[in-house]
Amino acid sequence: MKRILSERNLVVILFITALTVFSLAREDAKKAEQLFHNNSIGSSLLASPKQTSSTNVNRAQPEIINHK
Questions:
Q1: CB atoms closer than 10 angstroms to residue 45
Q2: Would you say residue 59 lies in a domain?
Q3: Cα distance between residue 49 and residue 28, in whole Å
Q4: Is 17 a domain residue?
């Protein structure tokens, strides 16, 4: 009697399942990215990087000491 779920058939089934899952995940990621870019908060954060630079703290750089 021939086994239906041989090792080869199991590998083929798992490969097809993995491809299906990854393609569905890619589509969901595209939808989430579009929602983020269409969101007013998300688009305003992407459009104004200068706003975050004003909160940076100015730090004094250490002096270089020359030893002779």
A1: 13
A2: no
A3: 27
A4: yes
pLDDT at residue number 26: 97
Helix (H, G, I), strand (E, B) or coil at 51: helix
9, 17 Cβ separation under 8 angstroms: no
CA 12 to chain centre: 29
Distance CA 25, CA 23 (A): 5
> Does the reported pTM lie above 0.85?
no
Q: How many domains does the chain have?
A: 1
| Distance of alpha carbon 47 from alpha carbon 37, whole angstroms | 10
